[in-house]
Write a structure and sequence with these properties.
alpha/beta; 38% helix; Rossmann fold; homodimer; 7 helices; 5-stranded parallel β-sheet; globular
Chain lengths: 220, 220
């Protein structure tokens, strides 16, 4: 019996959402990626296109250029504004794009309802991201309730990686045979990963933890 | 003592949000209006600009053009697609723009956090709008919880008209001296209100209920 494809997935092209795309390809009818005005984001989108084409999943790209114009975030201000170090460092708070997951999920919910789909999927996960309030389990639960209440068909928010660490996600990707050199993480957004910003540090730790040979070219 | 202006308000330029703008002008630091690709919406925006300028409140206009391209709704398909009659009629379901309030509130929350504001305000109200799931009290409550959970400063969603009918809102506007001929409602989006679509019917009933002489020029 073939599983019905009933979900729209928010796909960045980073490690986590790419893993979920392969992991749940049998239920994903449509993926959506957002352009919100950072180099990091544009390099991720190249990866999102590559994996959707490979899996035969339709990808919609949505322009949220107003975020670059009106929102405050170091992530939207170019490479020099990105702090180096670990997510736990307090200076990483500067990289928050306010309520980004809320905005992406809200658009995804409207798009899912327009297409007659039953669910939206997000690849949030456990770990250092507690610095980002819109990545925490309490946000995912309440946003899921708002999406269910605000749509005719009570669209469901699925976030199956909420309790998993990035290392556990990488282990799952290893089993799925994912080539992580075809994902992008670095907040600095250069062609080559810097290797020193919090997203690079986290990426390297997760790949090492999963026992994956890391073929990503790093500056450092 | 001057009340601190700590809120961002979602303003369409229709009767309800215009009334709230005057009613709560002492707490509104910033208003935001959205362009999502309908004539109706563009005519509302003209009114939003007029009232913000009059009250000295900054207005940000945000382009959500992707909704016109990717979302299904009669409201986004031109005047001929708009049904006539009352909101209670089942054909009005065609005018739903999926999760529109969710999307506008999510963007408003991110913008409020970027500006260091404490609250977002929405002029949803009681009445026939139960056909729109993202206008119901259950949505407003859960979306408020998601915004509080997903922002650093636990931004609050204020919806002080949730329990009021449109007639009661018009009565409040009468006391505030609002000129409702400078608000726009018609879903058909022509220069002159059609007088027959559900938004026009509701507008006329509310103004009559409040004992306001209706100076709006109607086609019908």
């Amino acid at each position: 019996m073939t599983k019905e494809k009933d979900a729209l997935m928010v796909l960045s092209g980073g490690m986590d959402s790419t893993t979920m795309l392969y992991d749940h390809a049998d239920s994903i009818a449509l993926a959506v990626t957002f352009h919100y005005g950072s180099n990091h984001n544009e390099r991720e989108a190249v990866c999102a296109r590559y994996h959707c084409e490979r899996l035969g999943i339709e990808l919609i790209e949505i322009d949220l250029a107003f975020m670059g114009r009106h929102f405050s975030s170091a992530l939207l201000n170019g490479a020099d504004a990105i702090p180096e170090g670990h997510y736990a460092d307090s200076n990483m708070k500067a990289t928050v794009v306010p309520f980004r997951n809320g905005i992406m999920l809200a658009v995804a919910a409207g798009l899912a309802e327009s297409r007659g789909l039953q669910a939206v999927m997000l690849a949030n996960h456990a770990g250092d991201h507690s610095i980002y309030p819109d990545c925490r389990p309490g946000f995912v639960t309440t946003m899921g309730a708002a999406i269910a209440a605000g749509t005719y068909e009570h669209i469901e928010l699925r976030a199956p990686y909420t309790g998993m660490t990035k290392g556990e996600i990488a282990s799952r990707g290893k089993a799925l045979g994912i080539d992580y050199s075809k994902t992008y993480s670095c907040y600095k957004g250069a062609e080559k990963h810097c290797g020193r910003c919090a997203t690079c540090v986290e990426r390297r730790e997760a790949l090492a933890e999963a026992g994956i040979t890391d073929n990503t070219p790093y500056e450092d």
